[in-house]
Every structure is written in C-alpha cells, then in structure tokens.
Amino acid sequence: MSEPVVHSDESLDTMLRGHIRLLQSKKGYRTSVDAMLVAWFAWTQAPQARRAADFGAGSGLVAITLARALPALQMHLIERQDTLVARARRNLIVNRVTAPVTQHDFASGPVPGLYDLDLVVSNPPFYAHKGRVAPPHPERRDAHYESTAGVEAFCTAAAAALKPDGLLCMVYPSEGADRLVAAFAGAGLGRMRLCALHHRSLNKPATRVLLAGQRGPLDVVTLPRMRLHPEDALDHTYIPEVENFLAELGNY
Q1: CA–CA separation, 185 vs 215, rounded Å?
Q2: Nearest-CA neighbor of 154 among 56, 249, 67?
Q3: Cys staple from 107: which of 5, 59, 148, 216, with CB 3.0 to 4.6 Å?
Q4: 67, 75 Cβ separation under 8 angstroms
Q5: Is residue 4 domain-resident?
Q6: In a domain, 1, yes or no
Q7: C-beta atoms surrounding 128 within 10 Å
Q8: Structural domain includes residue 3
Q9: Could you tell me if residue 163 is left (phi over 0), alpha (psi between -120 and 50 degrees) or otherwise beta?
Q10: Closest CA to 167 of 60, 33, 69, 43
Q11: Per the domain annotation, does 224 fall within a domain?
Q12: Into how many domains does the chain fold?
C-alpha cells in the first residue's frame, strides 16, 4: 500500500506497539492514553460484540484499535468536528479498516438511523471551561472541552442506539465519577460496572474511571482498582492485562 499523504500541519505517528499508524494535527487534537484505555476496557467487557459505534471518534484511534482487537466487529464512527471527520476517514484507510464516519452533534439528539448496537464506546470531551485555560486551537479545544453537548447527551444518544442488552463504555476523569454515574442512570443505563484507574500507585488518587453500563435499575458494581503502569516500570510499560491486549492487535 502506498504511503498516505501527510499535510504540512500533520504528523504520521506509529503507536500501540507499532500496530497502528495515525495521522494527527501538529497543533490541534492529538490522541491520549484515554483512547487506548476505553478500547481495552470495551474489549474486556464486550468481547462478543458485533455492531459498535464510537461516539466522539476524534481521529479514529478507538475505533481502529477495537477493529484490530475484534476482527468481526462492525464499527461506526460519530464525530462533530469536520476536520476530525475527514482525518478519521483517512486514518481508517491508512490502517485498512472499513467503517462509516458520520458527522453529528449530540446536542441535536440521537444519531438518526443508528440503532440495534451491541456496544458504544466513548472518550467524550469532559473538561469544563470554568477555572481552566482552554487550548487556543479550536480543534483541540472542542475535543477536550465540553462545547455543544455534555456527557449526559452522549449517554442519552448511546441508550437510543443500543440493543436492550447493549453496553456503553466510557473513560472519564476520576473527579467526575459521580456526574458520569448520574448521566448513565439518567439515560436508563443503571446496571453499571465501575473501575477506578490509578497511574501507578494505588496509594495515590485515581486519575480516570472506566464505566460500563446497560439498561436496568440502578446497581453500580465497583470492580477492583487497577494501575496503568507497574510500580517499578517506566511509563511506556503497562500492566500485563493491557500488554496482552496490545499484543492482540498484531493478529488482525
């Protein structure tokens, strides 16, 4: 396959143990470890999923990672920003993944025609502008900071798109865990599994929460806390559970 065209304001980055190449803006939105985390969590929670969507797909990394990990999975990417819609489409081609990409703003409601899904994954914009200095680049700002729609709208749209036993998986800052649980419950996804994720030491506060939810009455099961990196390892080494997931990406 020929090399992709890389625009002057982009970089072509190799990541996730060399299994994925991603076109990214140099100054705009660039992916973070959160994308890998929500893909890994969904892989553990819904390994039999066949129809899935990524809400707030950004440059496409979550969808591409899940497609590599679950070869039978049919993905659908949903993204609001037109520049990221275009880049996600190019990244799918780069990584030989076939999936539709739809431009949609969750402030307008659920995605038309999207239903009967086994799985929805999301790494939504979660920072509030109050008390923070937002990035000047609009693409990066809108990818990380709530703009037209909050997490509640993402959850409502996911509930509308899922099968009765379908699953929503999200990654979110740990300080917003109560709001996230309330958003799931408000969308009718009351049966939840919550995992607190620590950077390295379990003696320090968690940095992220991973939440999976299905339709049902409120019942939040707290999973064992996890660390992302072994205590005696550098940041490029992950716990065995995540390393095993990354190894699976090479089998696509």
Answers
A1: 9
A2: 56
A3: 148
A4: yes
A5: no
A6: no
A7: 12
A8: no
A9: beta
A10: 43
A11: yes
A12: 1
Residue 134 pLDDT > 80? no
pTM of the model: 0.92
Name, in order, each residue with C-beta under 8 angstroms of 252's C-beta and a sequence gap of 6 or more.
19, 67, 68, 69, 71
* Residue 135 clears pLDDT 90, i.e. is over it: no
Residue 187 Cα distances to 140, 181, 213, 218, angstroms: 28, 10, 10, 11
| pLDDT band per the 50, 70, 90 thresholds, residue 143 | low
Which residues span the domain enclosing 102?
10-251
Tokens 């996600």 found at: 88
Domain of 198: which CATH number? Answer: 3.40.50.150
pLDDT above 90 as % of the chain: 83
Model confidence pLDDT, tens digit, residues 178-204: 999 999 999 999 999 999 999 999 999
User: Please, is 130 exposed, middle or buried when counting C-beta atoms within 10 Å of its C-beta (0-12, 13-18, 19+)?
Assistant: exposed
